[in-house]
């Protein structure tokens, strides 16, 4: 189940860009054992504050990124222009060839009114699925 500090471990399945953008639509706070949380932290990039992890106080990440689970959201890859859904707290990062276009369109349709326009730009081109860069 994806929490903020997990996001830096992801990369775009198509172009391998590791710096994705995330917009969260629904979140929940999940408890963590403090002994576990104290060992974890965003390492390179803090997605919650959207800046380098080195500029976010350790304690801040530990009180927020570790606990906030994204239930529903959108991930976009600024490098190739693709987008991916987060559904039931699982980032569905699929290669174009395995992607369920129909399901992704339904998702886009369902959430589009809740998204800021910069994200919608990415989703307009369905999914920029079959275009080559
Ligand atoms: Zn963080
Ligand atoms: Zn990409």
What does this 3D model show about the protein?
The protein is built from four helices and six strands; from the N terminus they run E-H-E-E-H-E-E-E-H-H. It is an alpha+beta fold and 133 residues long. It has one domain: N-terminal domain of TfIIb, CATH 2.20.25. It has a four-stranded antiparallel β-sheet. A two-stranded antiparallel sheet has the order 2-3. Strand 5 (83-87) and strand 6 (90-91) form a beta hairpin. The termini are far apart. The model has no long low-confidence stretch (mean pLDDT 88).
Topology:
Blueprint: E1 21-29, H1 34-37, E2 45-46, E3 51-52, H2 58-63, E4 68-76, E5 83-87, E6 90-91, H3 101-111, H4 117-124
Antiparallel strand pairs: 1-4, 2-3, 4-5, 5-6
The structure holds zinc ion (2 copies).
One zinc ion binds next to loops.
What does this entry show, briefly?
Helix content is 22%, strand content 22%. It contains four helices and six strands. The termini are far apart.
Keywords:
133 residues; alpha+beta; N-terminal domain of TfIIb; 4-stranded antiparallel beta sheet; two-stranded antiparallel sheet; 4 helices; 22% helix; 22% strand; globular; binds zinc ion
